[in-house]
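Allow me, if you will, to draw on your knowledge of protein folds for a short while. A protein sequence and the structure tokens that stand for its backbone fold form the material at issue. I would ask you to consider whether the tokens describe a fold that such a sequence might reasonably adopt. Thank you for your consideration; the sequence and its tokens are set out here:
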Amino acid sequence: MKGALRCLPSATAAGPIPPATENLSYSMLLPGGAYCAGLAREAVRPLVNRHGLGELCETAVLAASELVSAAYRFTPDREMVLRVRWRFDALRIVLYDQHPAHPAPDEADACRERRSRSMWLLAAAVEAHGGDWGLAPVLTPGGGTKSWALLHR
């Protein structure tokens, strides 16, 4: 084993990584109850502020709450995943829910339209901030919906 460990870097004590915009990346599983919109608001506010994105905080909190509320209205009492990330110069708030797949394309389109109309407050807030939002089916056998809000500084 002579010389085998020479290429390894010396070990140094690594301290905690301080919160920064570039390392904002969190995911949380929400149980799907009506109270989850409040949980999302309570979780997103300190994350966004702590990572230096205070100017996006109110819109981000509203977006998370609206995404969770819409998911609950269309798929009550089913688990959902909320992701909050900074990627490609934008704050991305993404929600995955378990909305069942519709058997016919026209049913899926009608459901998507109803859901889009129900997210009018999200649309107004995000667009006023120069962002974008949307929803799309998750391509899994059981269905599901991915909805998101994208906010720029």
